[in-house]
Design goal:
This protein has about 675 residues and is an alpha+beta fold. It has 3 domains: about 140 residues, Jelly Rolls, CATH 2.60.120; about 140 residues, Golgi alpha-mannosidase II (Immunoglobulin-like, Sandwich), CATH 2.60.40; about 375 residues, Alpha/alpha barrel (Glycosyltransferase), CATH 1.50.10.20. About 40% of the residues lie in helices and about 20% in strands. The strands form 7 sheets. It has a 6-stranded antiparallel sheet with strand order 1-14-6-11-8-9, with no helix packed on it. Strands 4, 5, 7, 10, 12 and 13 form a 6-stranded antiparallel sheet that branches. It is globular and about 90 Å long.
Length: about 675
């Protein structure tokens, strides 16, 4: 592992307490009477003194809180190692076996992640003569925790509700806000560089070359986790940071999973990469995993790539065969499952497929499912968090399409939808308006009930209903809930069961709502949660894992990052690059900075909801990338591009911006552009 240390450091203050103890006296934290450095937040660089003998011992004063096991990593003379220590309460000297010591050499001490990371109260070298344990003074540099980036999320302004923050999140400022654009550039620079490293160092490392599949959790490729929650966000990472990987490995994986796993027509089963054999499951499980893959795995990809890439054909083929093999007889026609999660997922797929193809069968199948739930009357889902929230968003999205495509069905569903939403508000929210995990039996505000990570997903359905009817009844309810997110109770909050994935789900849902209802408090909350819980700003060398909970975290980080770039992508992405943008009237102001010379393109987003998905309006929906700023990708729509510092103005077409605006950035000389409609 290589580090790019900043040149600025401070020296640890050492105090020789006795012949056997040399301690840090400037450590930022204290335990058991000792000052110490927690290696989750600090790296230590120890320079061995000039009188070091090759046989001397290198020791660290290792801390323990109870009998817990903590781990320390070290680099020395081009080699890396680690030591785990289980101690009693307090500190104990532990030897690091570095091999032969050499004067002037450096020992780097550090941790990984934040769990069970070592904390150190001192370092020392003991002479080789055991009968004369002389302690030699050591020069120890405490390296700035910023690691690869000079920017630290925690150092950036905007995590408190101040007048400055109010100005920062003005949805339509009348002049370019360069402070906001630069702040966003620092955010996006940290996040995108880390996502790119994650793609190359973590995701591609678990790509199985023999099968062409990914193996994030072992030997099996499955569709409920690997295909549905890991693979799509490996694809997202490639799309936003390395398109060559998108067009090669990611597409090859799509071909491989169909070739190896399709079992009943295009419905797949799991695959064992060690034996090269399918793992045949029950029909019900096959339907469940196919719907999971189509909705959670393929919708996010299709939302950003459209129909030109073969992910769309895979999504459509799965849904066609799910209904081809539907076995459940109902008064409304055959449906594929009675599992509310499966049917909720299909209700999110079918309106999209209808709008993208205008094939009536997709709308008819959606109506079968909606009739099954709504027409008997008084339908309210009991689970409101993950796995239960899909039906709410699915019914909401179908309602938006029915308003114009099938107005008689929209009129039929309207009272049933209102009943469902009103019951959810009365029996499924806390006093802040945040939706809880499960529907309660009685009317009330449930502050003592577990709050669900799917609260934002649920409100997407409410917002669809409001927008389709042109009303604001539920929008104001949602605005109140979003305003309350900045209350102290929601800082490092236990969403559902407190994992990072649950935080990611909660923030993702909040970002879908923020795109429609800009609330300053919720913007600040989203920034804070991403910075402090999801990106690990205190350890820039720690990357996310590759399993589904960590991949879902990367998904939310990318959605949040596109808020800060206004969907602009720098191609190619390079570590050390910063890119941010802020709204300005009907356009945007863009800030780009690089630590080395950069030549590339700024690719602008297009109205994907209309051009890819076929929606006449950009309806709120799950598993999507919000469109914070778009250009019309044709020659007839013209835009004014102004370089503020070079003082030139050009008129370019939307087609040119969508394909990529050429830029050249000199080291540490920011590029500032303003783009507006002509």
């Amino acid at each position: 592992m290589k580090y790019q240390y900043m040149p600025v450091f401070v020296l640890a203050v050492l105090s020789v307490v006795s012949a056997g103890e040399t301690l840090f006296t400037s450590g930022p934290q204290e335990f058991a009477g000792q000052k110490y450095y927690w290696l989750a937040e600090w790296k230590l660089e120890v320079t061995l003194p000039d009188d070091t003998d090759p046989a001397d011992r290198f020791e660290v004063l290792f801390g323990s809180k109870g009998a817990d096991k903590r781990t320390l990593y070290f680099d020395y003379n081009g080699k890396s190692g680690s030591i785990s220590h289980v101690g009693q309460e307090g500190f104990a000297w532990v030897r690091l076996r570095l091999g032969k010591l050499s004067k002037g050499s450096k020992v780097i001490l550090y941790g990984k992640g934040r769990e069970r990371v070592a904390f150190l109260a001192g370092v020392r070298i003991r002479c080789k003569l055991a009968l004369s344990p002389k302690v030699k003074p050591i020069r120890t540099a405490i390296i700035s925790p910023s690691g690869r980036h000079s920017a630290q999320w925690a150092d950036l302004p905007g995590f408190k509700l101040t007048e400055e923050a109010q100005r920062l999140w003005n949805p339509s400022p009348g002049h370019p806000d360069w402070r906001r654009a630069e702040r966003s550039a620092r955010y996006a620079g940290i996040a995108l560089s880390k996502v790119q490293r994650w793609l190359h160092e973590q995701c591609l490392a678990v790509h199985d070359k023999r099968s062409g599949l990914f193996r994030p959790t072992g030997r099996e490729w499955n569709y409920r986790d690997t295909a549905a929650d890991c693979y799509p966000f490996y694809v997202w990472a490639a799309y936003y940071t390395d398109k060559e990987v998108l067009d090669t490995i990611m597409l090859d994986t799509l071909k491989a999973e169909q070739r190896l796993c399709n079992h009943l027509d295009r419905l797949p089963v799991r695959y064992d990469m060690e034996t090269g054999q399918k793992i045949v499951t029950s029909f019900e499980m096959m339907i469940f995993e196919a719907s999971e893959y189509a909705k959670d795995g393929l919708i996010p990809i299709v939302e950003i790539t459209g129909k030109e890439y073969p992910w769309f054909d895979r999504m459509r083929g799965l849904v066609d065969d799910i209904f081809k093999h539907a076995r459940i007889e109902t008064p409304y026609g055959k449906i594929p499952s009675t599992n509310i999660e499966v049917n909720g997922e299909l209700l999110q797929l079918l309106p999209r497929l209808y709008s993208m193809t205008l094939e009536r069968k997709y709308l008819d199948w959606a109506h079968r499912l909606a009739d099954y739930y709504l027409l008997p009357g008084k339908f309210v889902p009991s689970r409101l968090s993950d796995h239960g929230c899909e039906i709410i968003g699915g019914l909401g999205l179908l309602f938006t399409v029915d308003i114009t495509a099938s107005p008689e069905k929209a009129e039929q569903y309207k009272p049933h939808m209102k009943y469902m939403f009103d019951e959810l508000l009365e029996r499924g929210t806390n006093s802040d308006g945040i939706i809880v995990r499960n529907l309660q039996k009685a009317v009330g505000h449930y502050d003592g009930v577990t709050t669900g990570d799917g609260w934002g997903y649920d409100y997407v359905g409410f917002l669809d209903y409001d927008l389709a009817l042109g009303t604001r009844h539920y929008s104001e309810v949602i605005r109140r809930a979003m305003t309350n997110l900045l209350k102290p109770r929601y800082e490092k909050f236990n969403w559902d069961h407190g994992s990072r994935d649950n935080v990611a789900d909660s923030v993702e849902g909040g970002l879908y709502l923020l795109y429609r209802i800009p609330v300053t408090e919720a913007f600040i909350w989203a920034d804070r949660e991403i910075a402090t819980l999801l990106v690990d700003h205190t350890d820039p060398d720690r990357l996310w894992g590759v399993h589904k909970l960590e991949a879902n975290t990367v998904r939310t980080v990318l959605i949040h990052t596109m808020l800060h770039t206004r969907n602009i992508i720098a191609r190619p992405w390079r570590e050390g690059l910063q890119l941010g943008a802020a709204p300005y009237g009907d356009g945007i102001c863009i800030f780009v900075k690089s630590d080395k010379a950069y030549k590339g393109f700024l690719q602008f987003d297009i109205p994907r909801h209309r051009l890819y998905m076929g929606f006449k309006q950009d309806w709120p929906r799950m598993n999507a990338m919000p469109e914070w700023y778009t250009v019309e990708p044709d020659e007839s729509h013209l835009y004014r591009v102004e370089d503020i510092d070079a003082k030139w103005t050009r008129i370019v077409s939307g087609k040119s911006l969508s394909e990529g605006l050429p830029i050249h950035v000199e080291p540490d000389r920011p590029l500032r552009l303003v783009v507006t409609r002509k």
